[in-house]
Amino acid sequence: MNKYLENLYKIISNSFYFKILYLLVSLSYITLIFQMPIFKFLNKICLVWGALLFLINFIQIIMKKRKIYIYNIFLYIFLAVTLFFTIYKYPTTLNFKTWIINLLILTVIFSIDNYKTKKELIKEIDIYSYLYLAFTFISSTISIILLSLKLNIEKLIINADGVEELITFKGIFNNENAFGISAAISILISLYMISKARNSKLKTLLIINSIIQFIALIFSGGRSGYLALLSLAFIFAFIYIKNNIVRALLIILPILSLVFIFTLDSSTLHYIFTGREYIWIAAIRIIKFSFFSGIGTSNTIPTLIQNQPADLIGVTKGGIHNIYMEVTTTNGFIATFMLILFITSVIIYGTHIISKMKSREKITYTILLSILVAIPVINLMESSLVYIISFISLIYWFYAGHFISIMNIEKDRY
């Protein structure tokens, strides 16, 4: 009996199994299988399991088995600030639920496992990656076939508001953004696995998947996914070009390009951002009056609609479509600053270590780092890093934790 309980505890306390299960559940939610009862049940299992893992991690910190790093501190400040304002400014049930989701994301899904070896960490990344690649290979292939044959799947569902809604799927995906982003991330993960693969047959399969995902990205019609490919090019250029002037230009030019884009006329902006610019204008109006505290999740959508400069298409489902504006609007600038500090510190740390590496290993970790650049960049057009548990947030926080853990091991070699 004791041995059985011990084995059960080993499974429950291993957050990797939890992360694998949650990835499967989150991927189901972006495809037509999302309403199957099994996935709703598994989602509840994941929430309970996540709560248990939070308690286990907390005990491990007290027992000093798990270290606290500067990255954790940024996230703890984020959680502390958002909890403070939730209690004192907007204490509603929805806001507390949202905070608990963030707690789960930032303390369980994201974890720096300093007690694991490099071999263990890489093995976990490989399993996680192959699971994601298998799912996207199947789902993207089916979607490409359906779209090529001009076959549309429509389904009548009951949405979160209890209202009947007719969904037209993009292939088998709920929407074009999920289709495009899942394909783009799959390309990056495929390239990461190709850089490590020694088996020629496996490498061929990964190359085929990359081609399929690129076709899927084109078929999706979504634009956010292309930002992932630009991020890959950017991080390779930044790491492999040693000239500091060129590196500075690589940072400055994208910022200047953004400034230039927003000087364009309204019709061009609408073509580029497909209505997101109206949501951002409404969000800026709110931010001006609640810069430090935000207004809380429960107030965000209603207040955005009240401050609308035009019809806010997609705001009820996709939020503000910019995670940095979303956090500032919802929980204030301090929370946004902590999130940006975390993202930039991971990128700077990774760039510093990887720049010292040589040959094949350098390529592999550069691609891995590109995933941690791509997802925050995609979130300039989406709101999928915090507040919700989506396949995008799960992938980012999983890879971030494992990447930092590996870099902590690698730094002793350089």
UniProtKB/TrEMBL annotation:
UniProt GO MF annotations: ligase activity
Domain of life where this protein originates: Bacteria
InterPro entries: O-antigen_ligase-rel_domated, WaaL-like
Cellular component terms per the entry's GO annotation: membrane
Alphabetic keyword roster: Ligase, Membrane, Transmembrane, Transmembrane helix
Regions crossing the membrane: 16-35, 41-62, 69-90, 96-115, 127-149, 178-195, 202-219, 225-241, 248-273, 332-351, 363-381, 387-409
Domain O-antigen ligase-related: start-end pairs: 210-340
Pfam families recorded: Wzy_C
Entry keyword annotation includes Membrane: yes
Entry's localization field: Membrane
The keyword Ribosomal protein is assigned to this record: no
Membrane topology annotation: Multi-pass membrane protein
PANTHER family per UniProt: LIPOPOLYSACCHARIDE BIOSYNTHESIS PROTEIN PA4999-RELATED, TEICHURONIC ACID BIOSYNTHESIS PROTEIN TUAE
Name of the featured protein: O-Antigen ligase
Organism field: Clostridium tertium
